[in-house]
């Protein structure tokens, strides 16, 4: 069989192109095998959750949207439209927390609050910042972001603060503002 050189080149070219497109299709299928979708295990609109401890309400969480990712290796719950949370201490004193976005990590007990975070105590102390973390186990807030603290003594601004949920202990960094001193 003596095929002209032109026909051999054409056959080889067609075979190579067909092989190339065939592998492309298989490659995309192989990529899909290792891809796991990042979808919530559950999705809820307008949630009103009450947390209890020994028969007493310890918190009330209200949010327009909740996405639960408990189906992942590192489970978390996301509140993409923000939260309105009320935390009660053992004497039923309340701390009010609002943010535009929140994520609660189940394994660590840390809540990441973001976007116009505002915490208000019953005594009228107000903490405002753009991002704040809450350690549920230790009942402790902290951030490295800029903050504004308003209370009966005055207004202070700073960057970096950590404090107890009842505002009794406040450790702030790089503070400025007018604060009334007891000295």
From TrEMBL:
Record's signal peptide: none
GO molecular function, one term: lipopolysaccharide transmembrane transporter activity
InterPro entries reported for this sequence: LipoPS_assembly_LptC-rel, LptC
A cellular-component GO term for this protein: plasma membrane
Transmembrane segments: none
Record-linked Pfam families: LptC (PF06835)
NCBIfam families: LptC_YrbK
Protein name: LPS export ABC transporter periplasmic protein LptC
Species name: Flavobacterium reichenbachii
């Amino acid at each position: 069989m003596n095929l002209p050189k032109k026909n051999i080149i054409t056959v080889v070219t067609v075979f190579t192109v067909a092989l190339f497109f065939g592998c492309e299709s298989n490659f995309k299928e192989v990529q899909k095998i290792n891809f796991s979708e990042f979808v919530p295990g559950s999705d809820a609109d307008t949630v009103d959750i009450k947390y209890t401890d020994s028969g007493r309400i310890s918190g009330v969480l209200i949010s327009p949207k909740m996405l639960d990712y408990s189906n992942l290796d590192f489970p978390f719950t996301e509140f993409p439209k923000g939260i309105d949370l009320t935390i009660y201490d053992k004497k039923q004193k309340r701390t009010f927390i609002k943010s535009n976005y929140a994520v609660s990590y189940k394994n660590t007990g840390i809540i990441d609050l973001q976007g116009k975070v505002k915490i208000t105590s019953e005594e009228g102390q107000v903490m405002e910042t753009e991002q704040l973390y809450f350690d549920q186990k230790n009942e402790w807030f902290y951030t490295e972001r800029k903050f504004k603290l308003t209370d009966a003594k005055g207004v202070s601004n700073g960057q970096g603060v950590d404090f107890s949920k009842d505002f009794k202990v406040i450790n702030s960094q790089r503070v400025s503002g007018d604060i009334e001193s007891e000295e």
